[in-house]
Write a structure and sequence with these properties.
Layout lengths: L9 H12 L6 E5 L6 H13 L12 H7 L6 E4 L8 H11 L9 E5 L7 H12 L5 E7 L7 H4 L3 E4 L5 H12 L3 H10 L4 H7 L4 H13 L16 H22 L13 H7 L5 H19 L5 H15 L1
Helix pairs in contact: 1-2, 2-3, 4-5, 7-8, 10-11, 11-13, 13-14
Bound molecules: zinc ion.
């Protein structure tokens, strides 16, 4: 893949290319944008661009440098990801060690710290020293979807690059045309991911409609609620959040219809008729309460509180409404 193939981030791509052309490279970057818009993907492409043997402001994808980066085996390109719940000082010490070595073969060594908001204070402090005096042959790229969680001392030392989501209609047609996703699924994916290409691509191979419908059905049917879908003892945080997003989309759709929006705006347009019927079963204030409760449950997860009981309570309330 060359940079041209990263759809929807033209502004960022043009900016990075002109920085290379005009020799205005920063020593550290902070890529900021919603989860799943392609920040890490673009960071890797940037690394390819900086090191491509053809050296013509695009990555060729066939030289040895491009191939190694594509396969994640280039000795000078490092991806640092969180180790368990956070990015620890040992991860940063390793970076410090690597950054002070001469490059094996690259023109620029590149260190990508993915989801840098997971750096704990110790790690962030250690990184700060490196950001103050970075070696000339290295570039550090931090990515984050939570700018407010990045230590300001770190953020102020990086050139900030903002990524945005793609227009929902555009994403839907990209999924259909370039990824051969059927129309109903591509509509759902583009709305559900709010225009985040990377996220949509990561979900496209699942049997997405039946999966989300099963989660919705489990929740709204009194008899077969599978609490395990929302239990930290059996599921990881990200999966539970994904399930909560699905529930949120359901109640958001009912609210939308209740407020007079048309069915084209539905996320769950595959269940249009059912949603149309449901809008009369709920009061607006109840829908708002339910959605608030889902958001509260979301924050519980960030504090590592098991949300299963919160959801059970919500479900009983929802179910009362539903009948
Ligand atoms: Zn190349």
């Amino acid at each position: 893949m060359s940079l041209e193939n990263i759809i929807g981030q033209d502004k960022v791509i043009n900016f990075l290319k002109s920085s290379i052309k005009n020799e205005m490279l920063a020593s550290s970057y902070l890529f900021i944008g919603p989860e799943g818009v392609g920040k890490t993907l673009l960071a890797k492409e940037f690394a390819k661009l900086l090191n491509c043997e053809k050296n013509n402001l695009d990555a060729c994808d066939v030289c040895s440098s491009c191939i190694k980066i594509n396969k994640n085996i280039h000795p000078d390109i490092h991806l640092i990801v969180r180790d368990g719940s956070d990015i620890k000082i040992d991860n940063i010490r390793q970076l410090e060690n690597d950054i002070n070595l001469r490059p094996f073969e690259a023109r620029k060594k590149v260190f990508i710290i993915q989801d840098a908001h997971f750096m704990n204070a110790e790690a962030a402090n250690a990184l700060l020293k490196t950001l103050e005096e970075p070696p000339r042959d290295s570039i550090i790229i931090l990515t984050t979807s939570h700018l407010h969680k990045i230590f300001s001392t770190i953020a102020s030392r990086c050139r900030k690059i903002f990524f945005s989501s793609i227009d929902i209609e555009k994403l839907s047609s990209i999924l259909e045309k370039d990824f051969h996703v059927d129309k109903t699924s591509s509509h759902y994916l583009s709305y559900f991911t709010e225009g985040r290409l990377g996220k949509a691509i990561s979900l496209k191979d699942k049997n997405i409609l039946s999966e989300k419908n099963a989660i919705i059905n489990d929740f709204i049917n009194a008899d077969n609620f599978k609490q395990a879908q929302f239990d930290l003892d059996t599921k990881n945080k990200e999966d539970i959040k994904y399930n909560l997003d699905i529930l949120m989309s359901w109640f958001r759709d009912i609210l939308l219809l209740k407020c007079g929006f048309t069915a084209e705006n539905l996320i769950n347009s595959d269940r249009k008729r059912e949603l149309e019927n449901l809008k009369n079963e709920y009061k607006t204030e109840d829908l708002l309460k339910i959605m608030h409760r889902i958001l509260d449950t979301y924050s519980m997860l960030d504090y590592n509180i098991n949300p299963k009981f919160s959801l059970e309570f919500l479900r009983v309330k929802t179910w009362q409404n539903y009948r």
